[in-house]
Design brief:
The chain is α+β, with helices and mostly antiparallel strands. Helices cover 18% and strands 34% of the residues. It contains two helices and 13 strands. Helix 1 runs antiparallel to helix 2. One of its GO terms (biological process) is phospholipid biosynthetic process.
Length: 200
């Protein structure tokens, strides 16, 4: 099993603490061991296989929490619960134009107020127009990790970042896409890099 970068800084202290506590206060050692195991499970990074047909795939595991029109474009957002994989993936193939970090609040990622949360916006140039992926921090997330930089060429389903402990990932579709092109519904469960969100 692969793990997202950064897991050691959370898991290692828990495992070291568990080893020490096992000799001093075994119940605490058991708790710290469980914490370390949870961290490894949370940072899991399974392989994914994008579908052969066309379509914009989900950038995250979770449930669709946002489908709305913004000016002339459609936004589809996926809320990641604590039980979901938190590695994010490119919804389409294309070149990274910009990667922009925007500081902000840390409201629950499923709420409307989360639109003002800390985020990283990744703009992609594609054959179908400009797509934007937004990695949005949640109430407990305190760090967004982007794996990409301007000029990188991405393929659909490629890893592009992860968010520590709870969050949301959105795709802002090009103006050529309309609401009728979205093939998922609010509340639907999706898998990063595999579930198609929209298709023209």
């Amino acid at each position: 099993m692969k793990f997202a970068p950064g897991y050691r800084r959370f898991a290692l202290p828990a495992f070291v603490g568990a080893a020490v506590a096992a000799f001093v206060f075994p119940p605490l050692g058991a708790v710290l061991l469980a914490v370390g195991a949870f961290v490894l499970w949370f940072f899991r990074d399974p392989e994914r296989s994008p579908p052969d047909d066309s379509g914009v795939v989900a950038p995250a595991d979770g449930h669709v929490s946002v489908i709305r029109a913004e000016d002339s474009r459609v936004r589809v957002g996926v809320f990641m619960n604590v039980t979901d994989v938190h590695v994010n993936r490119a919804p389409v193939s294309g070149a990274v134009r910009t990667v922009t970090h925007r500081p902000g609040a840390h409201k629950p990622a499923f709420s409307k107020d989360s639109d003002r949360n800390e985020r990283v916006d990744i703009e992609l140039d594609t054959d179908e127009g400009d797509h934007e992926v937004s990695l949005i921090a949640g109430a407990f997330a305190r760090r967004i990790h982007s794996y990409v930089a301007p000029g990188d060429e991405l393929v659909r389903g490629q890893r592009l970042g992860h968010i520590d402990f709870g969050s949301r990932a959105d795709v802002l579709l090009p103006p050529e896409y309309g609401s009728d092109d979205v093939v998922v519904e609010k509340g639907e469960s999706v898998r990063a890099g595999e579930t198609v969100l929209a298709r023209r």
